[in-house]
Amino acid sequence: MSDTKPQYWFCLTHHAVEGRDGCKNADRLGPYSTAAEAEQALERVQERNESWDNDPVWNDDDEDDEPDPAKS
Protein backbone atom coordinates (compact mmCIF):
# COMPACT_ATOMS: atom_id res chain seq x y z
CA MET A 1 0.00 0.00 0.00
CA SER A 2 1.39 3.40 -0.97
CA ASP A 3 1.52 6.28 1.51
CA THR A 4 1.58 8.93 -1.22
CA LYS A 5 -1.39 11.25 -1.37
CA PRO A 6 -3.36 11.27 -4.61
CA GLN A 7 -2.60 14.08 -7.01
CA TYR A 8 -4.70 15.50 -9.81
CA TRP A 9 -3.94 17.40 -13.00
CA PHE A 10 -6.08 19.36 -15.44
CA CYS A 11 -5.52 18.14 -19.00
CA LEU A 12 -5.38 21.00 -21.50
CA THR A 13 -6.02 18.61 -24.39
CA HIS A 14 -9.16 16.96 -23.02
CA HIS A 15 -10.30 19.70 -20.60
CA ALA A 16 -10.68 17.09 -17.91
CA VAL A 17 -9.25 16.23 -14.51
CA GLU A 18 -6.78 13.34 -14.62
CA GLY A 19 -4.85 11.26 -12.16
CA ARG A 20 -1.14 10.48 -12.24
CA ASP A 21 -1.46 8.22 -15.31
CA GLY A 22 -3.04 10.81 -17.59
CA CYS A 23 -1.63 12.70 -20.54
CA LYS A 24 1.96 13.94 -20.70
CA ASN A 25 2.83 16.70 -18.23
CA ALA A 26 3.49 19.21 -21.02
CA ASP A 27 -0.26 19.09 -21.74
CA ARG A 28 -1.40 19.45 -18.12
CA LEU A 29 -1.63 21.91 -15.25
CA GLY A 30 -0.85 20.69 -11.77
CA PRO A 31 -0.46 18.71 -9.70
CA TYR A 32 -3.29 19.70 -7.38
CA SER A 33 -4.19 18.14 -4.04
CA THR A 34 -7.84 17.57 -4.93
CA ALA A 35 -9.89 16.94 -8.04
CA ALA A 36 -11.93 20.05 -7.19
CA GLU A 37 -8.78 22.22 -7.26
CA ALA A 38 -7.78 20.70 -10.60
CA GLU A 39 -11.27 21.44 -12.00
CA GLN A 40 -10.71 25.12 -11.26
CA ALA A 41 -7.29 25.27 -12.96
CA LEU A 42 -8.30 27.39 -15.94
CA GLU A 43 -10.17 29.85 -13.73
CA ARG A 44 -7.05 30.21 -11.55
CA VAL A 45 -4.91 30.80 -14.63
CA GLN A 46 -7.30 33.51 -15.85
CA GLU A 47 -7.38 35.19 -12.42
CA ARG A 48 -3.59 35.20 -12.17
CA ASN A 49 -3.15 36.50 -15.72
CA GLU A 50 -5.58 39.35 -15.08
CA SER A 51 -3.82 40.17 -11.82
CA TRP A 52 -0.41 40.23 -13.49
CA ASP A 53 -1.73 42.23 -16.47
CA ASN A 54 -2.94 44.91 -14.07
CA ASP A 55 0.13 44.90 -11.83
CA PRO A 56 2.23 48.01 -12.57
CA VAL A 57 5.38 46.24 -11.39
CA TRP A 58 4.99 43.59 -14.11
CA ASN A 59 3.25 45.64 -16.80
CA ASP A 60 5.95 46.91 -19.15
CA ASP A 61 3.66 47.75 -22.08
CA ASP A 62 3.98 51.27 -23.47
CA GLU A 63 0.85 53.36 -23.05
CA ASP A 64 0.83 54.46 -26.69
CA ASP A 65 1.91 51.09 -28.15
CA GLU A 66 4.02 52.98 -30.70
CA PRO A 67 7.22 51.26 -31.80
CA ASP A 68 10.38 52.71 -30.29
CA PRO A 69 12.46 54.10 -33.19
CA ALA A 70 15.64 53.63 -31.17
CA LYS A 71 15.04 49.87 -31.18
CA SER A 72 14.60 49.65 -34.96
Features:
alpha+beta, 72 residues, 3 strands, single chain, 3-stranded antiparallel β-sheet, 25% helix
Describe this structure in words.
This protein has a 3-stranded antiparallel β-sheet. It is elongated, with a radius of gyration of 19 Å. The protein is α+β, with helices and mostly antiparallel strands. The chain has 2 helices and 3 strands, in the order E-E-E-H-H. The longest helix is centred in the middle third of the chain and has 13 residues, at 41-53.
Head-to-tail CA distance between termini: 62 Å
Strand order of the largest sheet: 2-1-3
Indicate the radius of gyration in whole angstroms.
19 Å
The major sheet is characterized as:
3 strands, antiparallel
Strand content: 15-25%
Q: Name the overall outline.
A: elongated
Q: Helical content, roughly?
A: 25-40%
Which blocks of ≥5 consecutive residues have pLDDT under 50? Answer: none
How are helices and strands ordered from N to C?
A: EEEHH
Please count the beta strands (DSSP E, at least 2 residues each).
Answer: 3
Number of helices: 2
Class from helix and strand fractions: alpha+beta
Question: What's the mean pLDDT score?
Answer: 86
How is the secondary structure organized here?
Elements: E1 8-11, E2 16-18, E3 28-32, H1 35-39, H2 41-53
What's a quick, concise take on this entry?
The chain has two helices and three strands; from the N terminus they run E-E-E-H-H. With 72 residues, the chain is of the alpha+beta class.
